[in-house]
Amino acid sequence: MMNIDGIPVWKEYPPSSLPDLASSGTEHLETLIVGGGPVGLSLALDLGRRGRRVVVVNALPFIPRGSKAICFSKRSLEIFDRLGIGDRLVEKGVVWDKGKVFWKAEDDPVYEFDLLPIKDQKYPAFINIQQYYVEEYLLDEISTYDNIQIRWRHEVVAISADQRGADVTVETPEGSYSVRADYVLACDGNKSPVRTMLGLDFEGRVFEDNFLIADVKFKEEWPTERWFRFDPPYPGWSSLVHKQPDDVWRLDFQLGWDIDRQEAIKPENVEPFVSGLLGPDVDYDFEWISLYTFQCRRMEKFVHGRVIFAGDSAHVVSPFGARGCNGGMQDIDNLGWKLDAVLDGEAPEALLQSYNDEATHVADVNILNSTRSTDFITPKSEMARVFRDAVLDLAREHSFIRPFVNSGRLSVAVPYAGSSLNSEGTDEEFQTGPEPGAPLIDAPVNGNNWLLNQATEAFNVLYFGSKQEVKSAIESCLHGQGHVIQVTKGGEGAPAGLTDHTGLAYARYGADEGCVYLVRPDQHVAARWTQFDPVALTRALACASGRKAQTG
């Protein structure tokens, strides 16, 4: 395995040359993204697909290999699908939707769960795939866009910002250069140099515990399920098992706080953990060994004038529940369309404040769930341990207690409840379906297609009905700012277009003839009505696009 700067390498790229500078000696950019991980690359691709010229600077000249994100949620896959790599990820990844929780040496789980109770959707609840594949596929897709440039071994070493932009100094092997950017998007990880250089920090809680990751390779056929075990009969206070592509398995062990960290990662000291979990007869090879502690913290604000933070640079959580990278994907899905609208002059800069409000809300929800999971996994007092053990004991026989078993509440998209972009008072008559702020729910249409694939990257209006005059009236309200997705029940007299041949789309949206949903470019619901109302739709569109506050 090749290493550069002590970091294992998955794929190397040649360092990028210095850019051609203007006569002033300063390069002027519209958007500069700092950080070439999944969040930064996804944001670059999102903006690039919208026609923006984007530059990404990455301090490393390679994709790192090793212990990083592996669990990608259904909502992240839907975002990746919009960006052009969703199917490729699923083809390579390990699909799973079942989790099991074990206790002590028992062979039977005390509890198991299905992460995708609503079936018949394009994407599964989760796939496992190594982060380096995600980055490689994103870079492959980015390479097809002339308006996105990746600069390898270009490191931001200084930054200052004002009301009109940011001044950045970038260092390279060939020398340094200056950038004046309208916006700097900091996606440079949990140790964010940009955050540090601006004198900003996290707020929240640091957990005093150590966890050992051992990625091992073996050929045994094990179920593709998430297995978590409390108080295992082998070393470690808890263990977690995930299958990855290429016959690699992620094994995670809780070690406690008072350990010798250097000794803990020596292969001879890791072997008893791995052999105890896998069994003495399983022949395996180590792919990666690391030790980590974690925190549940975030910045007070994600938007600091013309410098905007997303992903781990803005918030960090424990790994239990796979909320880190998946939370970052929700960030960029939220931010991309808003920044594009501001740069185009279609929306005021104040629209970016809604990113701050919504993304900090998402971070708070993820931090809350992650903290609760961690406290259940690592009880902080004897009484907390007694409670946890009682829950595990009762969960075997009593279904009512199983929701209290918390081995990591797994990531789902967080609704933007109470967002300033939602239109209130538009959905009182609905009995079911996604409420304002919630993401769309997928459903099969036209026999072999999917509802979410019909959405464009602009505003969309879902119209459940067969009347062409209603569809035309909706299009008039949009004034070219969006797209109408008409879904009918089919049958005689139905117009050509999308047919809900299974009835699932109508059912999942609580829709009858004439129902209308206004959907944001990030596929979150902004408003909904049981019947089309042109005045209400016009107002809701203005509200959701940030052009004016809702009135009336």
Summary keywords:
30% strand, 552 residues, alpha+beta, Glutaredoxin, eight-stranded mixed β-sheet
As a whole number of angstroms, the C-alpha radius of gyration is: 25 Å
Find the CATH topology of one domain: Glutaredoxin
Task: Tell me, briefly, the overall form.
Answer: globular
* Average pLDDT figure: 92
Largest sheet: 8 strands, mixed
Straight-line distance between termini: 64 Å
- How many runs of DSSP E, i.e. beta strands? 29
Q: What CATH architecture of one domain would you give? A: 3-Layer(aba) Sandwich
Q: What class would the helix/strand composition place it in?
A: alpha+beta
Low-confidence stretches: none
Proportion of strand residues: 25-35%
Give the C-level CATH assignment of one domain. Alpha Beta
Number of helices: 13
Relative helix content:
25-40%
Characterization of this structure:
It is a single chain. With about 550 residues, this protein is of the alpha+beta class. It has 13 helices and 29 strands. The strands form six sheets. Strands 3, 4, 11, 12, 13, 14, 20 and 21 form an eight-stranded mixed β-sheet that branches. An eight-stranded mixed β-sheet has the order 9-8-16-17-18-15-19-22. A five-stranded mixed β-sheet has the order 27-26-25-28-29. α1 (about 40-50) packs parallel to α8 and α8 runs antiparallel to α9.
